[in-house]
Amino acid sequence: MDDLRAQLEALRAKVRAIEARKYQPPAPDEIIPGTEVETEFGRHFEMELVTQRHGGFHLSRVEELPLNALAALSGGTLASSDPRRWVFLDTETTGVAGGSGTVAFLVGIGRIVNRGFQVRQYFMRDFDEEASLLSALTRDLQDCEVLITYNGKTYDQPLLESRYILARQRPPFSRLEHLDLLHGARRLWKWRFESCRLVELENRILGFERYEDVGGAAIPQLYFDYLRTRRISRMKGVFHHNALDILSLACLTAVVPQRFGENGGAALGHAGEMIGLGRWLHKEGRRDEAILLLERALKRLEYDGLPPERRLDTLLMLAKHYEHKLRDYPRALEMTLQALELSSKDEIHRRAARLQRKIDQRALLNE
């Protein structure tokens, strides 16, 4: 009997050891202050910070934007919107490339509040907390009208929508107008910078430089390491990375509309920005403004250090406009001949020959 009791006690000890290794939600601590939040779907963890500055950028500039600030960027769908009803969103996920098994373990949102700019982050300490996280996110988006992301139309929103469906909850995004700032940023800066990644623009436009930042590619593994070790301190850099992304997104949202809207780009000082905005205006049918910008850009191309292919593309666009829209063949030929100095492509030679014929024919008609 004593042997049986000893065996039972040993078995109970093994069970207690196994139970001790099971997941215990980490309490908030001084490393990552936060709160355990309970919803009808369970519990999850939330962190919050309120700030008024991001580097040298005062976030009050977001609140001070006019109601029509997003009109041009949204193609007119956001003709009037109150910045206080905007929400900036970014996710950190278990897979950089996405996929059916990818989960957003951390969702961050930014809002203008009375105390400044608030960043709230929703964190699932294990996969069974996802439904609670999603429910809380829906709750906090109820009074928002505009969702602003950076590449969110391609990645963040579709991913979250699929997770809502799998959790048998209704996604909250259908009633929100969605502005993906990546598209406006590319229009404006892809001719100036080699990359329009958020971190690149954060540094080049906002003058903010990250130190010891967690790279996006490393974030999934850091989360899996956390699940294995249950050391929440390992996630500190991930929370910080997510908060910086949201703050930079908000700051760029204050900058990009102003660059698009200020007197047809009159305030722009770099040739790359002039070309980017000029091409966008041309596409939108605002050709007179576009041509003025592109001609200004031509005078600064060498000074601003843009490569010859940028000058070539601009010259050819101007040549096409002068030929087909204004019927100003001499001016079109002038642009084409300048293009020939940069490239000897047959199509440019053919354009020059065609323009010369048109000029000659017009001269004959006027004799």
How would you portray this structure in words?
With 367 residues, the chain is an alpha+beta fold. The chain folds into two domains: 20-261, Ribonuclease H-like superfamily/Ribonuclease H (Nucleotidyltransferase, domain 5, 2-Layer Sandwich); 266-366, Tetratricopeptide repeat domain (Serine Threonine Protein Phosphatase 5, Tetratricopeptide repeat, Alpha Horseshoe). It has 13 helices and nine strands. The strands form two sheets. It has a seven-stranded mixed β-sheet with strand order 1-2-7-6-5-8-9. The chain has a two-stranded antiparallel ribbon with strand order 3-4. Helix 12 (329-340) packs antiparallel against helix 13 (346-366). The longest helix is centred in the last third of the chain and has 26 residues, at 236-261. The termini are far apart.
Keywords for this entry:
2 domains; seven-stranded mixed sheet; two-stranded antiparallel sheet; 13 helices; 48% helix; 14% strand
Which class of secondary structure composition applies to the elements? alpha+beta
Element string (H = helix, E = strand): HEEEEHEEEHEHEHHHHHHHHH
When the domains are counted, the total is 2
Give me the side-by-side strand order of the main sheet.
1-2-7-6-5-8-9
> Based on CA inertia axes, which overall geometry fits?
elongated
What summary fits the major beta sheet? Answer: 7 strands, mixed
Tell me the β content.
5-15%
Topology:
Blueprint: H1 2-21, E1 35-39, E2 42-51, E3 53-54, E4 57-58, H2 60-63, E5 86-93, E6 104-113, E7 116-123, H3 130-140, E8 146-149, H4 156-166, E9 177-180, H5 181-189, H6 198-204, H7 219-229, H8 236-261, H9 271-283, H10 287-300, H11 308-324, H12 329-340, H13 346-366
Helix pairs in contact: 5-8, 5-9, 6-8, 9-10, 10-11, 11-12, 12-13
